[in-house]
Amino acid sequence: MSKRFIINADDFGLAEGANEGIMECYNRGAVTDMSLLAVGEAFGHAVARARENNIGRIGVHLALTDSFRPIMPVTEIPTLVNKDGRFSKGYCCFLAKYFSGSISMNEIYAELKSQISKVKKAGFAITHLDSHHHIHIIPGILKIVVKLMKEESVRYVRFPLERMSMLMKLTAPRAWARNLLLSSMCMASRRLLGDSGVNYNDYFIGHASTFKLKRTDLIFAISNLRDGITELGCHPGRFTESVKREHPYYKNCEKELEILCDTGFTEEIKKRSIELVSY
Question: Residue 75 to residues 86, 87, 177: CA-CA distances in angstroms?
Answer without folding.
Answer: 12, 13, 35
